[in-house]
User: Fold this.
Amino acid sequence: MGDDQEHPQAVPSVLVATFVSRYTVADFLLPEGFAAPGAASVLREARVVTEAGRLAWSRAGAAVHHRPYAGQGAVRDLDPVVLVPGFLAGDATLALMARSLREQGHRTYRSHMRANVGCTVQAADLLESRIASVVARRGRRVRIVGHSLGGMLARGLAVRRPDLVSGIVTLGSPMLAPGAHHATLTRSLDALVRLSRAGVPGLMALDCIAGDCARASFDESRAPVPADVAFTAVYSRRDGIVDWRACIDPLAAAVEVRSSHLGMAVDPTVVDAVRRALLVPASEPGDGV
Assistant:
């Protein structure tokens, strides 16, 4: 009987809390009126293979007319474009879109994110430094194209530093309800928090999804976007990862597409929507009200 009483103390309580507890996002990240997509909705994301194939096919047909950046013809006065990947993704996921934009005369830049899995506040600070370096190099404000979480980072940066950002295009970014995501993302967040609490550096911690860090990021992403920053929000009712309603920011020009969530990075109709959005003029800093 004495041995039985000692067994519960064999595993330190901190380890039990780290690997057994279930971590969920804060309630304020899932406001009333929004909901996570149903379990079967993730099956729609299999369409990403077909969507990527269509973009590759369309690019192959235009390959003979490839002209990098703006020269050799029409004079373009375009802002540089920085592409920011979504949650769990890196710059490589937006490589096809970047190539397509370059073929249209845009000068594109990577965010330097190998994997978007860290603290959102820290990620926003690093992105700000990256944007500042591009602005210093090109001598003009930039446009940011952000996929999912990348779009939320872009929106926050546009609020914080409109002197660096002339416009943002968000792709399937659930700005109104970041917690309205599929259960697969919930499990991914849970895994990151557990690994962070176990001592793995550079990952989202509990504070990033349910504490002051989460609140700061959410509040910044809901602050008004300055009038001199062009803002387009691309969404899809076929989104199998996030609640599409959460992607329609009332301050943005909303554009509906028919792609999957993952496919927004590669679908040719989305790329066309991004091209058009990047041509929307933005006023000079201070001209807005």
Remarks:
- Confidence is low (pLDDT under 50) at residues 1-21, 69-75.
- The two ends are 76 Å apart (CA to CA).
- Residues 120-138 form the longest helix (19 residues).
